[in-house]
Amino acid sequence: MSLVFRLVAQRIALGILLLLAVSVLIFAGSQILPGDVAQAILGQSATPESLANLREQLGLNQPAYIRYFHWLGGVLTGDLGTAMSSGQDIATSIKERLWNTLLLAFWAAIVAIPLAITLGLIAVRFRNGWVDKLISGLALASTSFPEFFIGYLLVFYFAVQHQWFPAISTVYDGVSLGERLQAIALPAAALTLVVLAHMMRMTRAAILNVMQSAYVETAELKGLSAFAVIRKHAFPNAIAPIIN
Predict the structure, then answer these.
(1) How many CB atoms lie within 10 A of CB 20?
(2) What is the pTM of this model?
(3) Domains of the chain listed by start with CATH number
(4) How confident is the model at residue 233 (pLDDT cuts 50, 70, 90)?
């Protein structure tokens, strides 16, 4: 368990550093792009005085690194700024949609992760057999199609042909949990199929790589069953690339 915790902590720390690096690159790129934010907001007929006042108000006359750290401090405190196009608070706009996004991701993950690991273990247990080829073929077919195409197929079959789920649905405050789950069923299924296929293939490849190790061969020579070798020796040592 300590190894898993360490791996998860390392991935979280690496993700934070990656987000920080991406934010610096995006901010630097926005500074290189031509154009004047104040001019874009006020229009071409704005007077120099009004432009100067707006630049002062927005802090555009400050050095770039100061503006970046000001923005970063706002992000860390929950202030994401205001959208230029709509004038709405960005944090509020995200908050209104965050619950539905997290609910969709939660149901996709809670189904895809255990199922992907199970199918990966089964594929390794019957490697090069018809079961392995069937699972790998379906996974390859799933990853070959884009998510929106899989979504079209699900909508056509389950919503248009059989009318089991709504083709278009809106989730808003006051909707019951059952109605909410019915509304996100098809989007969650499309996301699950994509995540499931990728993770199953990674699980299979990682375990097969570990199966070449000497300690796995030793376990086989001791008379352990094939599934016991995979479950007790190969899978615990292959979990790191699966988590990655």
Answers:
(1) 11
(2) 0.62
(3) 2-88 (no CATH), 94-243 (1.10.3720.10)
(4) low
Nearest Cα to 108, choosing from 192, 232, 166? 192
Helix, strand and coil content of the chain, in percent to the nearest 5, comes to: 75, 0, 25
Number of H helices, E strands in the chain: 11, 0
pLDDT at 105 over 80: yes
Q: What would the pLDDT profile of 177-197 be if each residue is shown by its tens digit?
A: 777 777 778 888 888 888 888
Q: Which amino acid is at 106?
A: F
Single-letter amino acid code for the residue at 113: I
DSSP state of 89: B
Asked if residues 40 and 84 have their Cβ atoms less than 8 Å apart, the reply is yes
Asked if 37 and 58 count as a contact pair (C-beta separation under 8 A), the reply is: yes
